[in-house]
Structures are given as structure tokens and as C-alpha cells.
Amino acid sequence: MRLSSTTFLVFSALALTGATTFAATDQYQWLYTSVNCSSQQFFVDNTCTLCFEWQSVSPGQRLTGLFDTWSNTSGGTQVMYKDEQVMPTLLNLGSSTNTKWSAVPTDATKMWIYTPEIIWMNSTVASGKQEYLLGSGQTVKFIQQDVGAGYTLLSSDASSGAFIGMVKFPLYYHDRNISTSTDGDKQSHFECVAYKYAAPTTVTPNTTTPTTPTTPTADMTEQETGPESMILIAAAFFIAFGLMFSLRRRA
User: Fold this and answer.
1) Strand segments (E) across 66-196
2) Which helix (H) or strand (E) holds 41?
3) In what order do the strands lie in the sheet with 67-71?
4) What gap in Å lies between CA 70 and CA 115, rounded to an integer?
5) Residue 92: beta bridge partners?
6) Whose CB has fewer CB within 10 Å in the chain, the N or C terminal residue?
7) Strand 62-64 to strand 130-134: parallel, antiparallel, or no bridges (unpaired)?
8) Separation CA 13–CA 189 (nearest Å)
9) How far apart are CA 68 and CA 46, in angstroms?
10) Residues 6 or more apart from 214 whose CB is under 8 A from it?
11) Tens digit of pLDDT for each residue in 30-55?
């Protein structure tokens, strides 16, 4: 399974043997945690055979670019029939009324496509069926989300860290006996990846009441020189000048 978005990227493989294993390139291993499928009841209820817990998802985050690879680590050939396959699905693990996901497209058969590596051939064993053979030790990228397809978390009231969704990747296959041209019983493998909720950080508004600036009062000892004061000063000057002029004429 692969998930590429602004924050997520992973590569994984389904190893279809009696003891399934999981392979991932080293640079992506920090993105998920492999867990026991008995660790959560929803893994048990969905008969998951390989289980992971993924990074948390926030509202508005989109899960896109997912794909799965099929690895045959058995000692013989395995066969996958096209008409037996079921497309991956996203299961809502949160409250159906309070946790909401959107899927584009809504039809899983249109969201998921087989990769160009998968070339279906008419079966030589099962009449009327199309098959894909995978030899021992081989790996193939077999299914992926179509361009533009993805799941988006719209909203949730879950607590941070609660499980809110799980993508289930099913695959059905048979062991093929090449010498006798016969198939064994149909076997199933369900890889399940659970997603936790990352609640948005709440920003607390500043409730401090702003201080109203006060108008400074004039210093009562400071002499004011407004327009009225200037007029009085000028009048006193002219009166004094007139008196001086009058006294000089008398002398």
C-alpha cells in the first residue's frame, strides 16, 4: 500500500504464503506501526491478516496515491483471478453521524485500477476466466488509486488519538500446480491500515481588555500662551508705548 500526499508516503507488499510477511523500503518505515491483528476489535471483525496503525489524520487531509503490491514468497506459482478480486474500501471507525469521510469517486470500482504491470490472460486452467500468474520470489504492483482519486476526512468530534478510519486491502489467490495444471483452494489476504484522529489545535482568543489611554492634564504651574494671552500682551504693549510717547511730548 502506498500513500502519497503532502505529508504521507509509504510502500508495502502483500506476501501471500502460509506465513504472510510485510516488506517496505527503509525510508518509509517510520510512517506506520505494525501491530497484532488481535490488538483492536475492528481488526478482528474484518478478519484482517496483516495490520498497521498509521499517522493521525486531520480534517481536510486527503489520502491519495494508495497502491498495493503482491509478493509471492512461496516455493511455487500463485494465480490471481480477475473476477475474484474485491476493491479496497475505507471503513468509518468513528461515529457515523459525527465522523465524516468523502470518497472521490464514490464507486470503489472507479477509484481503484489495476496497474499497467498486470496483464490479464485467458486462463488455461479455469475456462472463461482471466488470470495473472506470479512466480516464486516475484513481486508486482497490482492495484492503485486512479489519478485524482482519494479519501478526505471532512470532520470528526472524536478525541485526539481515537481511531476514525481503516483502509482494507483484500486479495484472493490460489496456489498453482504447474505440472498438473490444477489450482488449490481460494485463499484470502486482508491488509488493514487504521488511521487515528488528529484534532485541530484550538487557538484561544486574547480576552484582555485593552487599556484606554488617558488624556494628560495640563500642569497648573505652566504658563499658557494661547490666543487670548497673546492679545492681552499686545494690548499692554501698545498702551505702554502710547504712555511713553505722550510723556515725551509734554517734556
Assistant:
1) 67-71, 77-81, 89-92, 100-104, 112-114, 121-122, 130-134, 139-145, 150-155, 163-177, 182-183, 187-196
2) helix 41-45
3) 22-23, 13-15, 67-71, 139-145, 112-114
4) 12
5) 165
6) C
7) unpaired
8) 12
9) 18
10) none
11) 567 889 999 999 999 999 998 999 87
Cell of 4: 502519497
The string over 95-128, giving b where at least 16 C-beta atoms fall within 10 Å of a residue's C-beta and e elsewhere, is: eeeebbbeeeeeeeeebbbeeeebeeeebebeee
Cα 190 to chain centroid, rounded:
22
What is the C-alpha separation between 164 and 197, in angstroms, rounded?
Answer: 6
Q: Is residue 213 reached through a cis peptide bond, with omega within 30 degrees of 0 on the bond before it?
A: no
Grid coordinates belonging to 36: 497484532
Q: How far is residue 57's CA from residue 54's CA, in Å, rounded to a whole number?
A: 9
What does the block give as the cell for 187?
Answer: 485463499
Three-state secondary structure call for residue 230: helix
195 backbone dihedrals φ, ψ, rounded to 5°: -115, 135
Write down the pTM of the prediction. Answer: 0.71
Strands 13-15 and 67-71: parallel
When mean pLDDT is compared over 15-19, 155-159, 225-229, 231-235, the highest value belongs to 155-159
**Per-residue pLDDT at 222 exceeds 50:** no
CB atoms within 10 A of CB 15: 19
Residue 227 or residue 78, greater confidence: 78
Q: Say if strands 112-114 and 139-145 run parallel, antiparallel, or are unpaired.
A: antiparallel
**Can you tell me whether residue 88 is helix, strand or coil?**
coil
In a 3-state reduction of DSSP, which class is residue 249? Answer: helix
**Residue 200: all three cell numbers together:** 485541530
